[in-house]
Design goal:
Layout: H1 6-17, H2 21-37, H3 42-52, H4 55-66, H5 71-81, H6 83-96, H7 101-110, H8 113-125, H9 131-141, H10 145-161, H11 172-181, H12 188-204, H13 211-244
Helix pairs in contact: 1-9, 2-4, 2-10, 3-10, 4-5, 5-13, 6-8, 8-9, 12-13
Protein name: Branched-chain amino acid transport protein azlC-like protein
Membrane topology: Multi-pass membrane protein
Family: Belongs to the AzlC family.
Length: 245
């Protein structure tokens, strides 16, 4: 369907983003349940989701809260987990950077994996879109996902408040992280970064204040970046050897 107006751009983004409710719904529900299990009351869980709106960062902060980590460590860890969003923002700037400040602020808040992935593909394949149409499409990608996440958090928190502590849902949080990490391992560099971080995290558990998570994340990112450089050089060398053969 051709995009001819800002309204049609919004609804196309809405339709493209709708399938992601199958992901945001269950994870929002899980977050609400685990937030209550960690000691938050329903309003606190909702404020958490509304103010952060970043699933991986929320789960990370929740895990550290359960371990009674210092506040500064919780904040640094959550920010480290969400560093990829800074790269998303830089990638979207050529397409949305000229929008009014309030729109860019709203877009920054709503920049998550699904909104970025859908938008960058749409913008690259349809360069004729105007700035208002691009912004409308971007907001449309979150038109159902964001409300679904908030509603699921609310329902999960209500349900979690009724679950006896003896059920011990702590084990679900590591499983949630595994479910989030799996689909992200799309390239050899991703795999190298992941397993380097794992190997670093095991001995790093001896560090105080749960600093092992931050150290492992930094080492994993450096390993992944170096792997990208190495893989790119090998690719260039193969192309050069083929051209000179």
């Amino acid at each position: 369907m051709a995009i001819t107006t800002t309204k049609s751009a919004f609804w196309k983004g809405f339709r493209d983003g709708a399938p992601f409710m199958l992901v945001s719904g269950p994870f929002g529900l899980l977050f609400g349940v685990l937030a209550v299990e960690a000691g938050l009351i329903v309003p606190e869980a909702m404020v958490f989701s509304l103010s952060v709106f970043a699933g991986s960062a929320q789960f990370t902060a929740l895990q550290l809260m359960q371990e009674n980590a210092p506040l500064v460590i919780i904040l640094i860890s959550a920010l480290a987990v969400n560093l990829r969003v800074a790269m998303y923002s830089a990638s979207l700037t050529p397409y949305l950077g000229d929008a009014p400040l309030w729109q860019r602020a709203c877009a920054a808040y709503l920049t998550v994996d699904q909104s970025y992935a859908l938008s960058i593909v749409q913008f690259e394949t349809h360069p004729q879109m105007t700035l208002p149409q691009r912004m409308a499409y971007f907001f449309g990608t979150n038109g159902c996902v964001a409300p679904c996440w908030m509603l699921a958090t609310f329902v999960g928190a209500l349900v979690g408040a009724q679950i006896p502590a003896s059920w011990g849902l702590d084990f679900v949080l590591p499983l949630a992280f595994l479910a989030m990490i799996g689909p992200m391992l799309r390239t050899p560099a991703h795999v190298i970064a992941c397993f380097t971080a794992i190997l670093t995290a095991l001995p790093a558990t001896a560090l105080p204040y749960n600093l092992g998570l931050i150290v492992a994340g930094l080492v994993g990112m450096m390993a992944g970046a170096q792997a990208e450089v190495w893989i790119e050089k090998r690719r260039e060398n193969r192309v050069f050897a083929k051209d000179t053969a």
